[in-house]
Amino acid sequence: MPSGKVVWNQGLQFVGTSGSGHAIVVDTKPEHGGLGSAPSNTELVMIALAGCTGMDVVSILKKKRVSFDDFEVEAEAEVSSEPVRHMSKIQIVYRIWGDVPEEALKRSIELSEDKYCVVTNTLNGRAEISSRYEINPSR
Predict the structure, then answer these.
(1) Which CATH architecture has domain 1-38?
(2) I want to staple 34 with a disulfide (CB 3.0 to 4.6 A). Which of 28, 53, 64, 90 is the partner?
């Protein structure tokens, strides 16, 4: 079962520890009372989303024996200004380099976003999630 805890350090900076024993610092901008020393909570959610779906896509492409030179995933959120703030829109951009069949990449992304990525599945319904991909020539 995934777990984590945070321990307050100073300002609004916390040191988080995952259930598997890995540590990460969480902070916010100075104008919000933080030190600006580490990713914010919302940035960590975007990193978790990009990492989750990225791992799925790479795993699926490898199972399909699709080779590529490089791969990255970028996630960006709009945060609502409503009294109950939340990420209202999320855009995911997949960028891959190499001679990659478009249909293989497209299907791998669909499987991740619709079935395998627990972070996407958790955010679905709360945030409007959209995605696009770019296939680039070998670097």
Answers:
(1) Single Sheet (2.20)
(2) 28
